[in-house]
Amino acid sequence: MTGHAVKPEPLVTIDGVAKRFGGRMALDGLSAVVMPGRVTGLVGPDGAGKTTLIRLIAGLLKPSAGAVTVCGFDSIADGEDVRGVVGYMPQRFGLYEDLTVAENLTLHADLRAVTGGDRAAAFQRLLGFTGLEPFRGRLAGALSGGMKQKLGLACTLIRPPRLLLLDEPSVGVDPLSRRELWRMVYELVDQGIGVLWSTAYLDEAERCQSVMLLNEGRLLHSGDPTDLTRRMEGRSFVMRGLDTAGKRGALAEAQKRPDVVDALIQGRSLRLVMREGASAPVGAGAVEPVRPRFEDAFVSLLRTSGGDHAATGVVPSITATAPAADEGGFPVEAVDLTRRFGDFTAVDRVSFMVRRAEIFGLLGPNGAGKSTTFKMLCGLLPMTSGTARLAGISLAHAPALARARLGYMSQKFSLYPDLSVRQNLDFFAGAYGLAGGVRRAAVARMIDGFGLRPFVGSDAGELPLGFKQRLALACAIMHEPAILFLDEPTSGVDPLTRREFWAHINAMAGQGVTVLVTTHFMDEAEYCDRVGIVYRGAIIAMDSPDALKESARDAGLPDPTLEDAFIRLIERHDRARETA
Amino acid sequence: MIAPGAARRLRLFGLVRKETLQILRDPSSLLIAFVLPVVLLLLFGYGVSLDANNVRVTVVVENPTPEAERFIASFANSPYLEVSVMRHRADAEADLVAGRADGVVVLRADFAARLERLDTAPIQLLLDGTEANTARIVRGYAEGVWSAWARQEAMARGRVASVPVVAEPRIWFNPELRSRNFLVPGLIAIIMTLIGTLLTSLVVAREWERGTMEALIATQTGLVELLAGKLVPYFVLGMLAMTLSVAMAVFQFGVPIRGSIAVLFGVAAVFLIGALAMGLFISTVTRNQFVAGQVAIVSGFLPAFMLSGFVFEIGSMPGWIQVLTHAVAARYFVSTLQTLFLAGTIWPVILPDLGAMALIALVFLSATAARTRKRLD
After folding, report:
1. Where are the alpha helices (DSSP H) in A166-268?
2. pLDDT value at residue A380
3. How far B203 CA lies from chain A's nearest CA (Å)?
4. Interface touch A96/B218, C-beta < 8 Å
5. Which pLDDT score, from 0 to 100, does residue A521 have?
6. A contact test, residue of B11, B15, B219, B375 with most A CBs within 10 A
7. pLDDT, tens digit, for every residue of B312-341?
8. Could you say which architecture CATH assigns to the domain B55-156?
9. What CATH number should be reported for the domain whose range is A12-228?
């Protein structure tokens, strides 16, 4: 007899599950399994159905069709049994911010009937495991984003579950904490716990032993992530040694070629993914093959599976944005910007200069002070101290004049969801003081430039996400600003929509518009010419993405990523603080 | 592993402790429970009065005579009136128009002469009808003074005034007719409605908004534990607010308590459970703090204020609104409170009220339990 290993039973069996909310299909005909003793990644952009699937597994939602079985229990009929074996950490940190770390743990110990010596042992184990021991008496609301997630994890682990459901535990968390969260999860997996980790960061898929790749409610792939990346073998290339104008030109060139599936800027290089069977690209820079990433596979899948934009690898582009006359100097100058809220310093002496037509990024975790910096620069929030000049005009002396030169797109796309596309454009044109023929011309230019013609009569709230984003950008640039501020413009959108958005940004920078952007995505930071790394209210490093990566290179890390660099910088910063 | 019953007690205890810690750290619930009653009691206790005090009456004496002097004196004796005397009717009318006087009594030039001739002397009374309540009081008072004076005059002249029937009213329960004595107990009912519904309407919605509810229902915590974990701490807080309100009524406003204090608090407990359950229900249905707060005010406070008989008498409302008032728990609480404060422990009044309040509490509790699901859809 051949010695066959006992194949472990799946922890979760998802059998033909669909979930409908009103008329909207959130999940459609999903079948998959989650195995014990490994991390299964639930990967996909916002709105793909990740949270819905996790809630279905936790028994918090009832499937419209199909069934979910967890450890042999039906998620609905045996709901209480499912809750007994599942630990669930919701996306929004399901803990009480007005209770301390110890009080939150105590509540969860009460809820899970862990008492006496077991409780003391669990507290000791978990506080050590998460490194929260020194913060027992601190209010949960006063913890950093990373520590909050660790506390959430600790609470769900008070009674070790058989299945751990983590809904986007790493979103907006600083990269060091993110790495620690992964370390903890690997330890749990070694103890035999099955972990389902949902994420919009595609690079996290490569850390999972198994993935479910979701897009628009459908399962694109289920199984080993390397199965997907292996298919991309020999199709990923990098074109190195390009200057700013060169990389933008090469990008625009590549996006028009039919044999290119994906092209994007990484520092001073261009990353290219070729269609299956196509030959290696040729171009201005030196081309070399690279190891394919999970994102390459995802983009390739999306392009071939035929989504909304699959047909148009080419992106419409606005052409008439007249660049501001060259004033000389720096269009954006920020000197010692500081903002305090009570005794909390949200932004601490932040200084930077941005050149004309440069794309400058602020990279950092949630709560680091990126948006606050932007709001001060746009005159939306008074600064506690410091000075700022936009296009040479002091924000303190002539705020209205300075503001007329900038466009601002906020995290939440400030559109009126119940007005049509045209009404939104008309409204913003009016708000910028455009009237008569000038306004009509501006609205028409935006509709044509952003390909909004088919949607002019639709309500902005009902547009697909990608078009909503285009409309928000159109509304921000109608008055042809010389400087454009984009606050987390592509948070959680699918990779194709993000690429399309960046094609617009690159085109505008090519025409002389100065662009400032905030992000918590490492790869998005690589699209920028220069990046400031923001950590706890301060810029701890500022350089081109390539130079930042270079600074982290040593014998142990011959080819560091931007994330590696970020972690090095945080460690160095924290050490300097401790010694200070 | 511990027994299921012990696990349930442990969960309930944990939830109550959590909620208590949150109450102690959150100034807003303490403000609602302790500052709101004080502010409302002071505001309504001193601000709203249905008594006429310091009513300004101008007496116009066109021809001063001893009779007229005696008439003025009987006006001036009243503690409720501020009397000023004028000679010219036009001046007094100007005061009335300008709002400097609440009423004008005119003794015409032939006042004494007519009294002499006809045994009676008509007076003219001018009132400011825009303040209907004050106008009624001045009128009643002026008539009273006039008839008393007329009788005295008649007796002084040795004649019997033709007053066939004299009513001698005896006012029970509130002999001084201090409106504060029935307003303040009623006000306590309004305050308890407001506190009860506001406190709980915010807390469940807050858990939904902050995402903590999702984490809670993903544990084995049962429905009863969830609801009781919310009710118990806010019940204690509400009863403390009740104690504060009663103490203020007695010591600050001098309202007597003629009934049993134990019964008073027993009835308050039943009413409070109903109000808290109503707040929980609102919170559970809306899942949004802002909306829940608005709904609590509109469906809790306003009906309690308008339809409880606290200020506006139910008996003088249109029939269909009178029917509507039966659904307002505050109606029964107002009536019981007024009874316990002013009359005593009158069971025939209290028992039906108590039954109605218990029924309303039961309805809201079961409605909340029915709407609380351990699922998100």
Report:
1. 175-190, 225-231, 244-256
2. 86
3. 12
4. no
5. 87
6. B219
7. 888 888 999 999 999 999 999 999 999 999
8. 3-Layer(aba) Sandwich (3.40)
9. 3.40.50.300
